[in-house]
TrEMBL record, chain A:
Residues 33-135 form the Ig-like SoxY domain. This is Sulfur-oxidizing protein SoxY. InterPro entries: Fuse-rel_SoxYZ (IPR030831), Ig-like_fold (IPR013783), Ig_E-set (IPR014756), SoxY (IPR032711), SoxY_sf (IPR038162), SoxZ_dom (IPR014880). It comes from Sphingomonas yantingensis. It holds the Pfam family SoxY. Residues 157-241 form the Sulphur oxidation protein SoxZ domain. Transmembrane segments: none annotated. NCBIfam families: fuse_rel_SoxYZ.
UniProtKB/TrEMBL annotation, chain B:
This is Quinoprotein relay system zinc metallohydrolase 1. It comes from Sphingomonas yantingensis. Keywords: Hydrolase. PANTHER family: ACYL-COENZYME A THIOESTERASE MBLAC2 (PTHR42951:SF4), METALLO-BETA-LACTAMASE DOMAIN-CONTAINING (PTHR42951). Belongs to the metallo-beta-lactamase superfamily. Class-B beta-lactamase family. It comes from the Bacteria. Pfam families: Lactamase_B (PF00753). One of its GO terms (biological process) is antibiotic catabolic process. One of its GO terms (molecular function) is hydrolase activity.
């Protein structure tokens, strides 16, 4: 037995460590997301968020994995949401940092899973108290009925801090979960950020991202650079925006 | 339907042993601040199990044949204790309850005063009709057994602007807005005391879930100019001079708005915007960090939409 373990390749079926949050869904999600890759709970993944969801339709999460080397992917998930994964971000030239707002359907663990180049997943997170109804409540724009007028509008700001730009992008989109009435699933599913011909990061999104997705990224840039945001929603509608990097105010 | 959900939430919330063991007794200790006018102070804290949601201030006034309440607390259980306290204090039954605004910490005890006239402005009645069920779910989830039996009451009587004799006591009613879409200010003429509801906070950070900051700012200017002596804020200690608490509330709102706009301009996300330094002059304000983070949640998405330039044109 011992010999087999010693000679096993690193990426082979490591036993899943016990979940420090004791989530009832941990084993199921881990099997789907990480398959046989090694997984560890790791405080170097910083998941910054309020402890209480003031508004469970718009719950902010900021993830900083810059203490880890060679980050390939950052996955944000809320275990007990009907749509558990919110984003899957690949920072190809950008810093391994992302902020986003998500919906919370009930009290749930919210966590970041970070894949490093050696094939290991690093996980951290916390339980968040939520009133419930974030995924099963209709988007405000659906209730107001004005969503179509603004669909796909992109607003953005990029502020230079040192040699990096803090980019914030906000896209008008209902991010329908398919769980409310007869409204089918409809959401932004892909975004990428470019400086010139260089892709700095790309992201997959699911409908558990809050209505009107607002994403924060940190990218290498200089004043006067133009950053391009490209994306697509599940109906194939193209999203595109451009923003010039400005000096800090 | 709602009741079933709340009963379920309340039952679930009551499960942890430590919480069950805690006694659910409200201690109500009125302080007389003028002739026939007592204040009851809430805990200067967020709504939580430890305080049973009794965080808002309220006023008890002695009338000729009845006692008058301005706001009445968060739950049926609280209202029952308050009813007995007011009766003992004034020697009269509670005959009138005026609600300053829609928030549950101020008015959800109204169901305990079935024999009194519960009154609010037409706007407050509309606001309560629209929001009470949602707020009730939140209160049951936060407070569990403290809320048992509590059903929000939409006031049956309508208050309009002006001076009026209530149980022989002369009161001036001034409907305003800012902290919420409909805030009622009541001034007791005999003592000159202004009961400002949540339009004024004192040594406790203002909360903003339904606020319009520009309107609130204007209203605070109006309040400062209105004739009054002492002032009872919605949260925090009584202000005997009547101006300091107004000025402090205005100062916080001004800072809050410029802080939020500054955070958007600097490209901060919502989490970081809730973690900015709070100026030292607000060191004496309780719940300041908590309310800043809540305010970020209330205003940030709208502010970003307003301040970010379009990138797709
Ligand atoms: Zn209030």
């Amino acid at each position: 037995m011992l010999a087999i373990f010693m000679f096993a390749p690193v990426a082979m079926a490591a036993a899943l460590p016990a979940d420090p949050l004791g989530s009832p869904m941990w084993a199921d999600h881990a099997r789907v997301l990480f398959a046989d890759a090694p997984v560890e709970f790791d405080r170097r993944v910083v998941v910054d968020m309020p402890m209480l969801a003031e508004n469970q339709r718009v719950f902010p999460v900021a993830i900083d994995a810059s203490a880890l080397p060679d980050v390939k992917r950052i996955v944000l998930l809320a275990d007990l949401n009907p749509i558990p994964v919110a984003i899957d971000y690949a920072p190809t030239g950008a810093a391994p940092v992302v902020s986003v707002r998500i919906k919370l359907d009930q009290r749930t663990p919210v966590r970041a899973a970070v894949l490093t180049g050696d094939g290991r997943w690093h996980i951290n997170g916390a339980w968040i108290d939520a009133a419930g109804g974030g995924c099963s409540a209709p988007p405000v724009s659906r209730v107001k009925g004005d969503w179509a007028e603004h669909l796909g509008e992109v607003r953005a700001r990029a502020v230079l801090v040192g040699a990096e730009a803090r980019l914030r992008v906000a896209i008008r989109h209902p991010m329908d979960t398919g769980l409310v009435g007869n409204t089918p699933l409809y959401h932004v599913e892909e975004l990428s950020v470019w400086r010139g011909e260089t892709r700095l990061g790309s992201m997959k999104l699911w409908a558990s991202v809050a209505e009107d997705p607002a994403i924060g990224l940190i990218l290498p840039a200089a004043a006067g650079d133009t950053l391009t945001i490209r994306g697509r929603d599940t109906n194939g509608r193209e999203i595109e925006g451009r923003v010039a990097v400005q000096a800090a105010p | 339907m709602r009741l079933t959900r709340r009963t379920l939430l309340g039952g679930m919330a009551a499960l942890p042993v430590a919480v069950r063991a805690q006694s659910l007794d409200y201690r109500i200790e009125p302080v007389e601040v003028g002739d026939g006018l007592w204040i009851v102070r809430g805990a200067d804290a967020p709504i939580e199990r430890g305080n049973g949601g009794a965080i808002a201030n309220l006023a008890i006034l002695a009338g000729d044949e009845a006692a008058i309440l301005i706001d009445c607390g968060p739950s049926l259980r609280y209202g029952r204790v308050l009813d007995a306290v007011a009766r003992k204090l004034t020697g009269k039954p509670v005959g009138h309850v005026f609600l300053t605004h829609l928030h549950p910490d101020h008015g959800f005890a109204a169901g305990a005063f079935a024999n009194a006239e519960v009154a609010g402005t037409a706007e407050v009645r509309r606001e309560l009709q629209a929001t009470a069920a949602g707020y009730a779910d939140g209160m049951y989830r936060l407070l569990g057994d403290w809320m048992r039996g509590t059903e929000p009451v939409v006031p049956a009587a309508t208050v309009t602007a002006g001076e009026r004799l209530v149980a022989g006591r002369r009161l001036v009613f001034a409907p305003m807005a800012g902290h919420s879409p409909a805030d009622l200010v009541v001034t007791d003429v005999a003592t000159g005391t202004m009961i400002a509801g949540d339009l004024v906070f004192h040594d406790r950070a203002p909360s903003t879930p339904d606020a319009d900051l520009a309107t609130w700012r204007k209203t605070l200017g109006t309040l400062a100019a209105m004739s009054h002596k002492g002032l009872l804020p919605g949260h925090g200690p009584f202000d005997p001079g009547g101006q300091a608490a107004i000025a402090q509330t205005l100062d916080w709102i001004d800072w809050l708005e410029s802080s939020l706009r500054g955070s958007v301009a600097a490209g901060l996300d919502m989490v970081a915007a809730g973690e900015v330094a709070i100026p030292a002059r607000f060191d004496g304000l309780k719940a300041a960090r908590y309310e800043l983070q809540r305010s970020v949640s209330h205003f940030y998405p709208r502010l970003e939409a307003e301040l970010f330039p379009r990138a797709d044109q």
